[in-house]
Amino acid sequence: MKKITQSLFLFTILSCTSNAAVNDFCVADLKGPDSPSGYQCKPPNTVTVDDFVFSGLVAGNTTNTFNAALTSAFVTDFPGLNGLGVSAARLDIAKGGSIPMHTHPAATELLIVVEGQITAGFMTPSAVYSKTLKAGDVMVFPQGQLHFQVNSGNGKATAFLAFSSANPGAQLLDLLLFGNSLPSELIAQTTFLDVEQVKKLKARFGGRGIDYS
Length: 213
Fold this sequence. Notes:
Layout: H1 2-22, E1 68-73, E2 87-93, E3 98-103, E4 109-115, E5 117-123, E6 128-134, E7 138-141, E8 146-151, E9 157-163, E10 171-172, H2 173-178, H3 184-191, H4 195-204
Antiparallel strand pairs: 1-2, 2-9, 3-8, 3-10, 4-7, 4-9, 5-6, 5-8
Helix pairs in contact: 3-4
């Protein structure tokens, strides 16, 4: 019985080692469907070094509603990240710009400021954690927490972001509230905002639908 147990243990170890070797990486086949476990793997004979290199973290266009730009290096941009649990992005915020309240349901975020000044923070039901950051400062936002970044300096601000997921996802509070098809009066009732203000915000964020009037 002891020999059988030892043999089964050795077989298990070898099987695990073999699987680890086979599954060191799984470059995403972006032509296939995405799933909670990631994309299917490209055939190994089609994988090249370019699948593991991303050269697109350049300054984005900040001429928009938020005066900010996020340039992503997620799995949809960078297939080699598939299944590895990491991704990155570049954040550019013009003077007076901001990244509004949002969450990343699938990832913790690390913010690394490289230029300018950014006031950033996150909140829980019982506390707010906010600080003004300068070049060289790093701040972490736990997974799923509502957080923000505001350019609080006199010039542009730049930061790099790291995420604990190849595809962190994002839910922007403003877009969720005012970019939908719910009637303005219903949104006003559930947010305690003035109806006219809700209509203005819906117009700004692309909301649609029929208003009660």
